[in-house]
Amino acid sequence: MRYSGNGTATVAMLVLFAAVLTAGESPAAAVLTSRGPQHYNAPSSLELVLEGGLVQPVGDLADDYFTTETGFDAGTGYQLGARVRQYVGPHFAVSPAFSWTDFGPNDGVADFGSGPRAYSIETSVYRYGLDFQLFLGPPRDAAGLFLTGGVALMHNVYQDEIEGGGWYETSVDAPGLSAGIGLRMGLIELTGEYNWNRFSTNNLNAGGPDLDYNWDYAVVRMGLALGR
Description:
Blueprint: H1 6-24, H2 27-34, E1 46-57, E2 75-87, E3 92-104, E4 106-111, E5 116-135, E6 143-162, E7 166-185, E8 188-201, E9 211-214, E10 217-227
Antiparallel strand pairs: 1-2, 1-10, 2-3, 3-5, 4-5, 5-6, 6-7, 7-8, 8-9, 8-10
């Protein structure tokens, strides 16, 4: 069984990206661009930021799979993403953002009632977000701190495979929140961020009652800002 709810989210994010790009061509944006870098040597008032980093599951994902109802034994993984950042002043920016987070898989050999069999469990999250950054300190400094936070649609994906038993995949959409702090150094930025990602479903409980899941995670990532 597979439930996919990210079609609407994808359309919504495309609309947000289009709105930001349109705003970037407005007279106000042109005035901002004409004033030069907006903050910490930002190349323009509109940036494309490419991001990647390491992710650590914090909630149920990291709990033991065989001794808890909601644990999956997921390990440290990685995140890839991108955002379009529109500055609306020397200290504030709005960023439609997308990221894909792949947690470390849980695989091994276990007895599921018919003798030892190899198994693999994989978990991942597609995040469609709208983030906000507040840059601290004088705008023309070569480096400085910033605060980040946002709201998002989290598309949570679960996949498992048991030797001789086939492949199973399901997904659950949930609202999410994020908050973090970063350091901007020219065109490079480092960010530490916590993501709240919680939902209830019976998709992961073999058709039993709904269970509450905590798929929170922390990420440390690096970004490269590209201006137009």
